[in-house]
Specification:
Length: 248
């Protein structure tokens, strides 16, 4: 397999195909790019979104992976969409329009020569809490395998409505993994903050907190924790379909 051809295929999958689940969802493509090539990716997406990409029914965001263990990926693209049907329809629009197809091929050409794909994942949003502020640019993603999703949602509901949880900064999203390959987690908890300093202050405040301890115990009883990664947004294009959905 020519690995340089794989990333365009993976990105194309997110636009040209659909899986059966309703509501907002996301596609993640993580890849390795050298420091000198990273600016080329931003410029290429800028050009794409100024043209055919401007009609994408969601948001495309590029992140730099700050801390992710031994994962060789340096960057991640997350495309969020209002539904698989809308995502698929947009892919068909690209296929059926000569100008859009040419612009897409140009974008993919930049990625194929500047990156090496590491992993692709598709998921659907289960529930969100907090204030969905588009300015939140620092994200912690916690990977878990859940035996009782309903119990996890209930634990988050109790936590976010507790005295401590009501003071929580940022936003929280629980997603179910639709397709992630062998060994992928069943769910991902994504927490967005305005800055790394804000995240650090909140973690310090939670140390020894009983509300938080009760929440963790409830989640641990019905899930297996696989670890977390830290990503910082480089740039985002479009509007996220979950911008108005987070709630207590």
């Amino acid at each position: 397999m020519n690995i340089r051809k794989t990333l365009p295929l993976c990105l194309a999958f997110s636009l040209l195909t659909g899986l059966a689940h309703g509501g907002p969802g996301w596609d993640v493509t993580s890849f390795a790019a050298s420091p000198q090539n990273a600016p080329k990716l931003v410029a290429a997406i800028d050009e794409w979104m100024a043209g055919a990409g401007g009609s994408y029914p969601g948001q495309v965001a590029l992140y730099a992976n700050e801390a992710d263990g031994n994962d060789p990926a340096t960057h991640t693209i997350i495309a969020t969409f209002p539904s698989v049907a809308a995502n698929e329809a947009y892919g068909r629009q690209i296929q059926g329009d000569e100008k859009m197809s040419a612009e897409w091929a140009k974008l993919m050409g930049v990625f194929s020569t500047s990156t090496t794909v590491v992993q692709t994942t598709r998921g659907t949003f289960v529930k969100s809490w907090g204030e969905a502020d588009p300015a939140d640019s620092v994200w912690m993603h916690h990977m878990i395998t859940v035996s009782d999703p309903g119990a996890v949602v209930a634990a988050f509901d109790r936590w976010m409505n507790s005295a401590t949880g009501k003071r929580a900064p940022g936003q929280v999203h629980l997603s179910g993994v639709v397709a992630g390959g062998l060994g992928s987690p069943s769910h991902i908890v994504s927490i967005g903050y305005a800055s790394q300093a804000e995240a650090e202050r909140w973690q310090e405040e939670l140390a020894g907190n009983q509300d938080y301890a009760t929440f963790l115990e409830a989640v641990q009883q019905v899930s297996e924790y696989h670890g977390a990664n830290l990503a910082v947004r480089v740039k985002a294009w479009g509007t996220s379909p979950i911008a108005q959905t987070a709630r207590r």
